[in-house]
Amino acid sequence: MVHKFQTYGKKERMGYPVMQESSDILMGTVREYAEAEKEEVYGEKLFDLNREPTLMGRMENPTSSGIITGHCGETMEIYLRIEGERIEEISFFSDGCASSLACGSVAAELARGKNIDDAAAIEGDTILMVLKGLTEEETHCAYLAAEALHAAIHNWMLRQ
What is the model's pLDDT at position 25? Predict the structure, then answer.
């Protein structure tokens, strides 16, 4: 039975259903719908990386790093651990928006395990091909991530 202002929800206390405000149930439904809508609009990869960026964190004792601040004021940091000419470990850090975090994740995923020349070929457009759904205003995040990767590679090459 559904009442005007209260209904039985899925919550239980000591094994018995607990009355839950209709507004709570409605807000939960709205949140679920909004999440599904975002995933459909932005694409599964971008949506997942917005929620849980991969390879994020500042690396201790990297072989090289690159730090770039974009015209938007956001900073992207890429850290590399290179053995021979192969990127064995990579991580990134950004103080930017969710799109920056997603782009940093993709740049790191694409470069991980690659030799230096292949990693240096990763461009902003490469990242955009993986992250379909970025708005025009967000595309600069992909180029920022690529620039930080290139800076880290360049800094490593200078020491060779």
Answer: 54
Q: Within 10 A of 61 (CB to CB), how many other CB atoms are there? A: 6
User: Distance between CA atoms of 17 and 8, rounded to whole angstroms?
Assistant: 7
Phi/psi of residue 128, nearest 5 degrees: -65, -30
More confident residue, 159 or 21: 159
Query: According to the CATH classification, is domain 51-158 in 3.90.1010.10?
Result: yes
- Which pLDDT band holds residue 27 (cuts at 50, 70, 90)? low
What residue spans define the domains of the chain? 6-42, 51-158
In 37-85, beta strands by DSSP E? 64-69, 75-83
The tokens for 137 are: 């205003």
Q: List all residues 6 or more positions away from 138 whose beta carbon is below 8 Å from its beta carbon.
A: 97, 99
Question: Is the separation of the CB atoms in 134 and 142 below 8 Å?
Answer: yes
In whole angstroms, give the CA distance from residue 59 to residue 129.
Answer: 27
Residue 103, C-beta contacts closer than 8 angstroms, at least 6 positions apart: 76, 127, 131, 134, 141, 142, 144, 145
Confidence of residue 33 (pLDDT cuts 50, 70, 90): very low
